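Exercise 3.2. Students should predict the tertiary structure of the chain below and write it as structure tokens, then compare their answer with the key that follows.

Predict this chain's 3D structure.
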Amino acid sequence: MVIAPLRSRRPGAPRTSPGATAGVDIANCPFCEGHEERTPPETFALGPPDRAPDTPGWLVRVVPNKFPAFAPDLTGPPRHVGLLESRPARGNQEVVVSSPRHVSSLAELEPKEIVRVAEAWQTRAAEATRRGFPYVQAIVNEGHEAGASLSHSHSQLLWLEAEPPAVRQEHALDQDAGGCLVCRLLEEERGHRERVVAMEAGVVALATYAAREPYELLVVPESCEENPFESIFLAPALILAASQLARIHKLEGAVPMNLWLHAGAHWHIELVPRITVPAGLELGAGLYVNPLAPETAAERLRAAG
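Answer key:
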């Protein structure tokens, strides 16, 4: 990662537009309460016990992704053609609608709403395990540039048969280092506090040292836990991430954002605002140029509270 503050001053520096969201027509939003017939039948919901499925009155609603990349009924062995291999994309993909009210960001949710989102994640992860999908990838995309097709706040749960490549790489680094690197990182970062943004309810938010984007954050429980879907710290971690996202919005506007949860080893949340545009250097050389030093990002976020 290359930290280059002067790059932000160059003429015509590409940047995503604050508030750039897709599908903002609330009257036609399929995720709003009262529009339940516009989604596939729900697989889970939180709400009054006497509420009928696919009717108003829910607090959090989970539905199958209408356009999934993974499907549970795909089977078959890997296929090899010379150097190349393909296999069925077996899995399951669900959408977790954060709230019946039309809000466009995790940053706009109330803490009690985020607690319910965490409960939905944990309930559906348990069901995924029961049905033979041991790894669940939780993601949040906000804004068109970050891959969101609808503006109503939601997350996605991808049920997978094995750890995805990025998670496997993290665990391999732990094994090579002979222990948990996240624990060591937390100890060092709390020692000098330059990049510590906030510490609340057993969870720490750090400005990522080798950040790809301005204000990229790592949100980690202080205790070393493998399974976020059985952790009491999942809801506090999401609440802390949302509060820091609100500060980013205060500083930069409602920028697009990606958030994901990595389970296993020392679980953590990564939050990446989409403020700059990856170009040839990033995509072709694997060198990411960030115009904002993480120490400066942490200082600004602390001051924005």
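Discussion points: The longest strand covers residues 135-142. Confidence is low (pLDDT under 50) at residues 19-23.
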